[in-house]
Amino acid sequence: MPLDRELIRLIRALDPFDLRRLQILARGLLVAREGDPFDVGPPETGKAKVTYRQEWVRCGRENCSKCPHGPYWYGYWREDGRMRSRYIGKDLKE
Q1: Which residue ranges make up each domain of the chain?
Q2: Distance CA 3, CA 6 (A)
């Protein structure tokens, strides 16, 4: 089913803060329907080492009095010579 043109126009008009909120909503819907496609873990080969760290994040909203937000957990590893990262969440699960 193609996306409605009016919907696409409205999405393009969103500011960065609302685009991030839309991204969180869409990811939450996908996780609820299909499971988490961004589950962080070492690759099956076991060669890559994943480093976990907490970071404070700025939301990008000009008048936000609570910035930075967090801390949130991120996973970092090297893949094909590039540094990769994934958002994990507020809590780090074992």
Answers
A1: 1-37, 40-94
A2: 9
